[in-house]
């Protein structure tokens, strides 16, 4: 491949509701995108599954779809992969056949396993080792469930016949024709099986779940040699050079390379990360300590808070409630709502995430009166994401100050929801802090492209990448402090009612 021909990075962004492939040029501008929706499976209440083979087929198709209009494999310097985290796949090492549907991060079927381990007093040790809390959200209990419930899975795993992986591992295995079973440090850090201090799988936790090491992938840096694509897929080998879980990739895409820089991504869920540098901060507010990225063998940590329902709330308004016919309508309806409305939606459809971590909580709508209509409910749905973002930002600020670090003073946002100006302004007002929206809002895919680009020599490193970040619009608070506190107080009261406090 001639160096001058390799002018693009191909980024695979495998998300919860769709699979996308994007071409980025050296400046970090998206040149072309292909996308396929992903089928959601709900076999029981609280269970969420994907077909791993559908994910692979969609990924291959969208990647091939970019190789049109004169763009050839020779133009691709490398592939970067970012993925829905925690979603768990178990497959046959030889045939590549999944043994079961992938269990999605939103799935709550292992709540009982988590409760049992909490009762045994295991949570402090889990938090100390992994930075995570005992919750069905993470991969470890999902893998244990598969080994316990798929006939013959456990003895086959112990015999070395099976591979476990998050979606990045699954895609790399398929892209390399089954030659590589690997992951990166960010995805490993979300499994609840990985010690983020030693940067290795933790034998104690593996023992608690009865998980053999042989089923686990090799853990690599985010910029690394993850193998090359099989020749038959694209007609030539393409290096896979960058990998990160979706929220860590967005952190890279938002150039949050300094301690105190914070980003929040509004996709299906909302995920906020603040860079804590080389210092791992142990949260006192039930936030997660996690790996932000690992480059050149050096680990950078972050505090993270997760909201399970963000863009998914807008989908609910559209698909289940029929209050809007498109996501774009939500902005106009929120503007039309009675500004004096006291309607509060607590969107605990699949439990509440940080800082509450209550998997059994369920959604509720409060404060409706006779003239409450669709606009007020739509506004309450959007406001609920703003309120939860403040929950996270306040908790992060507390933890950062306690650790002797500077609390975040502003927030960089991305994801589909942030194209709604009313929503971003409302969030700014509720936070009482500036919010910045970047020129390139495809930050998750962009982060994967940057990581692959660093490995491929497009960029010198994080500082070089940071020079590419540009703010498209900065939002400043306009709401009076008294109203801000009053609205947030109503939210806190509604959450207490949902939690039964």
Structural commentary:
It is built from 17 helices and 22 strands. The chain is an alpha/beta fold and 501 residues long. The strands form seven sheets. Strands 16-17-15-14-20-21-22 form a seven-stranded mixed β-sheet, with helices on both faces. It has a five-stranded mixed β-sheet with strand order 3-2-1-5-13, sandwiched between helices. It is globular, with a radius of gyration of 22 Å.
Any descriptors?
seven-stranded mixed β-sheet; five-stranded mixed β-sheet; 501 residues; globular; alpha/beta; 17 helices
The first-to-last residue Cα distance is 63 Å
Strand order of the largest sheet: 16-17-15-14-20-21-22
Mean pLDDT: 92
Radius of gyration: 22 Å
Query: Could you describe the largest sheet, including whether it forms a barrel?
Result: 7 strands, mixed
The portion of residues assigned to helices is 25-40%
Secondary structure topology:
Elements: E1 8-14, E2 18-24, E3 30-37, E4 49-50, H1 52-66, E5 76-83, E6 89-92, E7 102-103, H2 111-119, H3 123-130, H4 139-149, H5 153-158, E8 162-165, H6 167-175, E9 182-184, H7 185-188, E10 194-195, E11 200-201, H8 203-209, E12 218-220, H9 231-234, E13 240-245, H10 246-253, E14 262-266, E15 270-277, E16 288-295, E17 298-307, H11 311-319, H12 329-336, E18 344-346, E19 364-366, H13 374-402, E20 411-414, H14 421-431, E21 435-438, H15 443-456, H16 462-466, E22 471-475, H17 481-499
Parallel strand pairs: 1-5, 5-13, 9-12, 14-20, 20-21
Antiparallel strand pairs: 1-2, 2-3, 4-7, 6-8, 10-11, 14-15, 15-17, 16-17, 18-19, 21-22
């Amino acid at each position: 491949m001639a160096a001058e021909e390799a002018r693009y990075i191909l980024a695979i962004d495998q998300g919860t509701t769709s699979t996308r492939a994007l071409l980025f040029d050296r400046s970090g501008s998206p040149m072309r995108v292909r996308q396929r929706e992903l089928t959601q499976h709900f076999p029981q209440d609280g269970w969420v599954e994907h077909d791993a083979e559908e994910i692979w087929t969609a990924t291959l198709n969208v990647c091939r779809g970019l190789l049109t209009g004169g763009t050839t494999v020779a133009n691709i310097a490398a592939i970067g992969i970012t993925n829905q985290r925690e979603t768990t796949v178990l497959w046959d090492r030889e045939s590549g056949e999944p043994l079961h549907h992938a269990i999605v991060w939103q799935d709550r079927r292992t709540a009982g396993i988590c409760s049992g381990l909490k009762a045994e007093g295991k949570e402090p040790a889990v938090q100390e080792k992994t930075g995570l809390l005992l919750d069905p959200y993470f991969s470890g209990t999902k893998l244990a469930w598969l080994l316990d419930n798929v006939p013959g899975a456990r003895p086959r795993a112990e015999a070395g016949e099976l591979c476990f992986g998050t979606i990045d591992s699954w895609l790399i295995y398929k892209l390399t024709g089954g030659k590589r079973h690997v992951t990166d440090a960010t995805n490993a850090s979300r499994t609840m099986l990985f010690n983020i201090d030693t940067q290795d799988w933790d034998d104690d936790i593996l023992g608690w779940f009865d998980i053999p090491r042989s089923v686990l992938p090799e853990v690599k840096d985010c910029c690394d040699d993850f193998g090359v694509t099989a020749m038959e897929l694209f007609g030539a080998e393409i290096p896979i050079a960058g990998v990160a879980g979706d929220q860590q990739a967005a952190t890279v895409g938002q150039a949050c390379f300094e301690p105190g820089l914070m980003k929040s991504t509004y996709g299906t869920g909302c995920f906020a990360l603040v860079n804590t540098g080389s210092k791992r901060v142990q949260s006192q507010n039930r936030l997660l300590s996690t790996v932000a990225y690992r480059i050149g063998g050096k680990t950078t940590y972050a505090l993270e808070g997760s909201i399970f329902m963000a863009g998914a709330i807008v989908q609910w308004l559209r698909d289940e409630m029929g209050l809007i016919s498109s996501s774009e309508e939500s902005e106009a309806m929120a503007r039309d709502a009675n500004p004096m409305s006291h309607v509060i939606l607590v969107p605990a459809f699949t439990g509440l995430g940080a800082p509450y971590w209550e998997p059994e909580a369920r959604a509720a709508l409060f404060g409706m009166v006779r003239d409450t209509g669709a606009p007020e409910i739509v506004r309450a749905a959007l406001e609920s994401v703003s309120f939860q973002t403040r929950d996270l930002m306040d908790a992060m600020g507390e933890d950062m100050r306690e650790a002797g670090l500077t609390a975040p003073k502003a927030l960089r946002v991305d994801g589909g929801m942030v194209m709604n100006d009313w929503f971003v302004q409302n969030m700014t007002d509720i936070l009482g802090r500036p919010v910045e929206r970047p020129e390139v809002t495809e930050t998750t895919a962009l982060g994967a492209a940057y990581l692959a680009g660093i490995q491929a020599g497009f960029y010198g490193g994080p500082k070089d990448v940071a020079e590419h970040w540009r703010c498209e619009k900065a939002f400043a608070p306009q709401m009076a402090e008294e109203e801000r506190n009053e609205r947030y107080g109503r939210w806190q009261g509604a959450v207490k009612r949902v939690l039964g406090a």
